[in-house]
Amino acid sequence: MPAAPAASPAPLLEVMNLKKHFPIRKGVLRKVVAQVRAVDDVSFSIAEGETLGLVGESGCGKTTTARCILRALDPTDGRILFRTKAGEVVDVAAVPERAMRPLRREMQMIFQDPYGSLNPRMNLLDIVGEPLLVIDRLTDRAERTERVAALLRLVGLRPEYMQRYPHAFSGGQRQRIVIARALALHPRLVVADEAVSALDVSVQAQVLNLMLKLQRELQLTYLFVAHDLGVVKHICDRVIVMYVGKIVEMAPTEALYRAPKHPYTAALMAAVPVADPRIRSGMTPLQGEVPSPANPPSGCYFHPRCPHAVTLCAAQPPALEEVAPGHFVSCHRARELTLPGLGRGHDAPSASRSPSPRPDG
Q: Tens digits of per-residue pLDDT, 235-277?
């Protein structure tokens, strides 16, 4: 008798039917007249040690999704199941605020703006050591200083920098400080919200290489929120594409970039600049504007801008279906369309699976 296939390990994070709606109020009595559906019925999971990319245009709901996972925003509906170090599965969406403290040490965030996310009135010792003081209750200053020094070395900064203030550092160095602060509590899940979009291209590669190095050494799991498809291609294992609060495509990175199945994904890839003027994407740029999540169109939200739309697209919302192993698409015509992927000439900063030889950016 053949052996039974090994069961796949339980995911570190499982998001189920997540919704986040913001009320629109009008009048003297501030009556709710409509809802902004920033995140509308989103479901996915992240395996331990995986890097999952979350991409889409501005306003698609990717950052709101990330903030709901960390409970920086309270979800309107849905479940966010997180497997703790102790093996317990906790619904982050339902946990009382006072009970979030133990979970905070296991889930941390790297913010987009390395300038705005650091307090200019605090030096590095206080910035990086703040989680140790607030969450770990580490009041021994000597021990806290020692741990901060180790964190600065880990991200490629010198311990003697800890008495300096944020204005004394470059953008890349500031982002390393943000990463050091995020790692202070030894988290398992790190949400990187546009972590390199504010940096120069050469510095982006250094920070991406650092993140990959830290992932290997510390067994980290990343939710990588971005709009730069070139960067996502080089750092993510799987990619989710969002449009107006919904998932339109989800697949392993190689499969998604080689042969996207949703017209919106193909349009995003066609918009990635190419350094070689002789290369043409062969796809007509999208027309129109992204619809408002407060008043989305009927049927498929993308149909008013889709060059492949048919009558069914305006009448009926498509379901998220698996069209290939691990490849999910929300499109009525996904099985019949052949769309161009991200081809030769498209490249990201030279991030690699080996650490960057230049520690300071």
A: 999 999 999 999 999 999 999 999 999 999 998 888 777 666 6
Residues 219, 231: contact at Cβ < 8 Å?
A: no
Torsion 327-331-336-340 (CA) sign: negative
For the whole model, what pTM was predicted? 0.88
Q: Taking Cα atoms as reference points, which of 237, 225, 245 lies closest to residue 317? A: 245
Tokens 């939200």 locate to 301
Instruction: Work out the end-to-end distance of the chain between its first and last CA atoms, rounded to an integer number of angstroms.
Output: 58
Sheet holding 77-83, edge to edge: 31-46, 13-26, 77-83, 89-91
Assess if CATH 3.40.50.300 describes domain 9-106+185-356. Answer: yes
Which residues of the chain fall short of a pLDDT of 50?
1-7, 345, 350, 353-361
Angle at 333 between CA 340 and CA 257, to 5 degrees: 30
Helices (H), 33-108: 62-69, 101-104
Helix (H) or strand (E) holding 150: helix 141-154
Q: What is the CA angle 242-245-250, rounded to 5?
A: 30
Q: Tell me which H or E stretch contains 126.
A: helix 124-134
